[in-house]
Amino acid sequence: MTVVGNHENVDNFLPYKKRYNPPFAKGELYWSINYGALHLIGLSSETAYNIGSPQYNWLVADLAAIDRKATPWVVAGWHR
Fold first, then answer.
1. What is the pTM of this model?
2. Other beta carbons less than 10 A from residue 14's beta carbon
3. How do the domains of the chain map onto residue ranges?
4. Which tens digit of pLDDT belongs to each residue from 57-68?
5. CA distance 40 to 64
6. Closest CA to 3 of 45, 65, 35, 64
7. Alpha-carbon distances of 41 from 45, 54, 79, rounded to whole Å
């Protein structure tokens, strides 16, 4: 899986989205997916992530929704 970074910030990320946008990202530049016992999170360093931003609020809700008995491992990544 990919995460967006500073080099993808061209033409409103359109080339990146056309090539790499996973279907579960729902049009956003951040996403999460369960893979076995792993909850994998891809964050965007190129969109707001401060407290109260859409990405921050999404991350708080995503982390709260993890069933840690079914998915005890959580890995998050981003690129700048």
1. 0.88
2. 11
3. 6-77
4. 999 999 999 999
5. 14
6. 45
7. 13, 15, 12
